[in-house]
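Fold this: glutaryl-CoA dehydrogenase (ETF)
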Amino acid sequence: MTDPLELAAIDSLFTEEERDIRDTVRKFAAEQIRPHIAEWFAAGELPARELARECGKLGLLGMHLEGYGCAGTGAVAYGLACFELESADSGVRSLVSVQGSLAMYAIRTFGSEEQRQRWLPAMAAGEAIGCFGLTEPDAGSDPGAMRTSARRDGGDWILNGEKMWITNAAIADVAVVWARTDEGIRGFVVPMDTPGVSTLPVGHKLSLRASVTSALVLQDVRLPGDAIMPEAIGLRAPLKCLGEARLGIVFGSLGAGYDCLRAAIDYAGSREAFGKPISGFQLTQEKLTEMTRGLVNGMLLAVHVGRLREAGKATPAQVSLAKLNNCETAISIARTARTILGANGVTLEYPVLRHANNLEAVITYEGTSEVHKLVVGQALTGQAAFR
């Protein structure tokens, strides 16, 4: 039997170093995540700090950033790491991508040298955890409508507001928080032990259960003047961070789809009905073929956009198109794989419905499918249809 991705010789698109990174992360996932992930998902918990330290040892945190203890790999290598992590579970990939592509990227790109020196080496090692406070209860797809405010008080800043759906917040040491000021939207580096900072867990989740998700509450939080990130000016700054994180999702979502497809192929080969394996039936083979077609097309698109990112040529519309396509492809694969597994597909003995549930969140965060369609639509027509 042929691996689905090898029908298009996908491995030939990667360098030896990229394949080595992928294989290292695959081994890490096989040994430290897969044996426990169903239990973590069922319990709604994740040993995030322990996993972060292990990821730090492997150089996965902020791996595509330069300096400050970061590995400085290319975009495709980072994408392959996300692919392997998310093939185990989306929650684990979220831990890594929020740390590296949102919190660390923001500090690296917009922060002061003092902020970089204080936080980035510890974050790269997994000894400090970061979160990214942009989304609010009433400001999701329209972050410009945020209500969190920051006002000057002498040489200090006073922050008030609430952020919602913040990955890593309850275990974080530092938060990158975006707030409205008299100068417009600005970004702040907020140590989580600052008086007035608190978190509230988001309970009863049916998606990303193996992930730490919280509300981040800021009540008269007093920060020194140098807590502001000097280059984080205007809404373009947090949106640039989101664009950085989306590339990990472009690859990662396909990892979830790939795991579902492999599970369906294995199950179909061993499950018998009417006297033979169900993999020998035409309708089953049609499903497997369609899932493979979507996976291969999505992977080719992911690698292409990754190479464009490495060359400094990827546009926001291209990344939006890839995120839209690959998330929709992955969740379609997960749902189709579930039909092949029948009733067994709804249990945690197999990964497909866990992945499908997770992907319901993945198609929403870092830009919903609807928002990405509008980004692509604007590129095609020259007309903004957001309002």
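The mean pLDDT is 97. The chain is about 50% helix and 15% strand.
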